[in-house]
Design goal:
The chain is mostly helical and 373 residues long. It has helices spanning 3-22, 49-63, 66-77, 90-105, 108-124, 157-163, 165-168, 171-185, 221-236, 243-256, 279-295, 300-317, 351-365; strands at 28-32, 39-42, 148-150, 195-198, 205-209, 349-350.
Length: 373
């Protein structure tokens, strides 16, 4: 992917960040209207607020401009009440919304918040089941509580637990949490089921199902991508014992993704190719592949090429403007499919899609190493 394309896409995404900062509205950006750039917002950050803050941390790192650092600090602080949330998905909030600021920009307040968030995840751990369950306040899940698990619970959460070993002695919890989710959600062929019900006294599998896929035995696009990311982050933090799992999950993606690299919302939708793409799943997978390419020499070429194919396709064909006649606000990542199962935001800008494409572009530009995020 050439430097001009990368730099141009970064500039457009910074314009979009500026436009979002300028919107005087309460709440974190959640999903957006790709036609006019307005956001549906979540007052407390839902499970997605950390991605907005993460974009601001990355923009501050890349540009060294104070408005992004100030914005990141202000929005990160607004996540503080979420430390007490009974939801494993707060791992997203405190990895992207706090830990990145601590590690990339040496922000002390962000470090304290990341530590508090990690400590609260440790408190949710079930040692008998050897994982952190969804929790009673898990967002956008049809089944929640102490006996439910979800592959979305890996990224951020495992990385926080592994990263805070020196102060919280949390690394073994992270390993167990990851190992159990692989057992519960990853099929023998490397495909991933989104959700599982387990016995809280033993952690053994009761059933697999999905909250957002087309049916319980399908492979929802983001489920596969989240698994790739959780494993890639674990490898980035030195957990080489999970390399075989990372390869089989990533290789499944490569074997089943469309030729242009942009995934459909669910790999098993019988309407393919006449159905929704999901640019957010694609961006998550691309970020994961860049990490794995840096960590697994035997698969480096294949993973790097697949990642760059997807990133270029997103930057050229899905990031506004997508043509000379496209007069929409620059830097909107279109065609994110939030929840087709429930008919929510099926052709929209999604804040996590924005974050992961931005992370990918900055990695290609050399602003950060893929394994730093």
């Amino acid at each position: 992917m050439d430097k001009t394309t990368v730099d141009n896409a970064i500039a457009r995404m910074c314009q979009r960040i500026d436009a979002t900062l300028a919107q005087q509205h309460e709440g974190f950006p959640h999903y957006g209207n790709p036609e006019d750039g307005t956001w549906v917002r979540s007052p407390g950050g839902d499970w997605t607020g950390g991605f907005w803050v993460g974009q601001l941390w990355l923009a501050a790192l890349h540009t060294e401009q104070a408005r992004y650092l100030d914005g990141a600090r202000r929005w990160s602080a607004l996540l503080t009440p979420r430390v007490s949330s009974n939801s494993v998905f707060k791992g997203f909030l405190f990895w992207y919304g706090a830990h990145l600021g601590a590690t990339l920009l040496a922000d002390k307040e962000a470090q304290a918040l990341a530590s508090a968030g990690t400590r609260s995840l440790v408190d949710m751990y079930n040692p008998k089941a050897r994982l952190i369950p969804l929790g009673l306040e898990a967002e956008e899940a049809s089944s929640v509580g102490a006996h439910e698990a979800n592959i979305d619970a890996l990224p951020g959460t495992v990385a926080l637990l592994l990263s805070h070993e020196p102060t919280l002695k949390s690394a073994e919890i992270g390993r167990q949490h990851l190992r159990q989710h692989i057992a519960l959600c990853v099929r023998d062929d490397g495909s991933v089921c989104q959700s599982a019900t387990f016995h809280p006294e033993s952690g053994s599998l009761i059933k697999r199902y999905t909250h957002k896929g087309i049916h319980d035995s399908s492979t929802w696009g983001r489920a596969q991508a989240w698994a790739m990311l959780g494993l890639a982050q674990a490898l980035s933090l030195g957990e080489k014992t999970f390399e075989t799992d990372a390869i089989r999950v990533a290789d499944w993606w490569l074997a089943h993704a469309p030729a242009d690299g942009v995934a459909f919302w669910d790999f098993d939708d019988p309407s393919i190719p006449n159905t929704n793409r999901d640019t957010s799943a694609t961006a998550i997978a691309a970020a994961s592949l860049l990490k794995l390419a840096a960590l697994i020499p035997s698969r480096a070429k294949a993973y790097r090429e697949a990642a760059e194919t997807a990133i270029e396709r997103l930057a050229v064909h899905y990031l506004t403007p997508v043509s000379p006649k496209d007069l929409r606000q620059p830097g909107i990542l279109t065609a994110g499919c939030f929840n087709k199962r429930n008919g929510v935001a099926m052709e929209n800008e999604l804040i996590w899609g924005d974050y992961f494409l931005f992370e990918c572009l900055l990695a290609l530009a050399g602003t950060l190493k893929p394994t730093q995020a």
